[in-house]
Design a protein that fits this description.
Length: 172
């Protein structure tokens, strides 16, 4: 049976603060670029079979793409959603290129949020690589604009996620 723990806004904000603090610890300890991996999941339930399936697939893809170059990793299973951290012996731009390739090329990549921080702690964005912003799962417009305006209810986004997951599971 699926565990469905609803989180509060305060818990979500605290998890972001905790994530930033842990990233700083890892950057200061390893002096290497860092991958911070979470799952794009709408609504108040962040820990579910959906997020677990996406996370497991993402961790596998990240480990495969970075084989032999990961100097440290930690996976966390929190009520606010699974989190993965990877300190990597690679320049940050190349690392971001590899992570964008997963986000854009993996069947579940659109559901993955794979951030890259340079060794000094600066986020490397898609725009640094000349890449376009990510698109909305529902309408194809810029995802950031739809998220900001709350253009789609969580149920509609979950339906889109379910379609992506079903297509991926059919091909497994």
């Amino acid at each position: 049976m699926e565990e469905t723990v609803e989180i509060t806004l305060e818990e979500l904000l605290q998890s972001r603060d905790d994530r930033a603090a842990f990233q700083t610890i890892l950057l200061n300890g390893y002096h290497q670029p860092l991958v911070s991996f979470t799952v794009n999941m709408p609504g108040k339930v962040k820990r579910s079979w959906r997020s677990r399936a996406v996370f497991d697939a993402g961790v596998h893809a990240i480990r495969e793409a970075l084989a032999g170059q990961i100097v440290y990793y930690k996976l966390l299973d929190k009520n606010t959603g699974p989190e993965g951290y990877f300190a990597v012996d690679m320049d940050a731009q190349t690392l971001k290129e590899k992570m964008v390739a997963i986000e854009d090329g993996h069947p579940l990549g659109r559901l993955m949020d794979i951030d890259v921080l340079s060794a000094p702690g600066v986020q490397v964005s898609r725009s640094h690589l000349g890449q376009n912003p990510r698109k909305c799962l529902v309408c194809g417009n810029m995802a950031a604009a739809c998220t900001r305006s709350r253009a789609h209810p969580a149920e509609e986004i979950l339906e889109a996620i379910d379609r992506i997951l079903a297509g991926w599971q059919e091909n497994q």
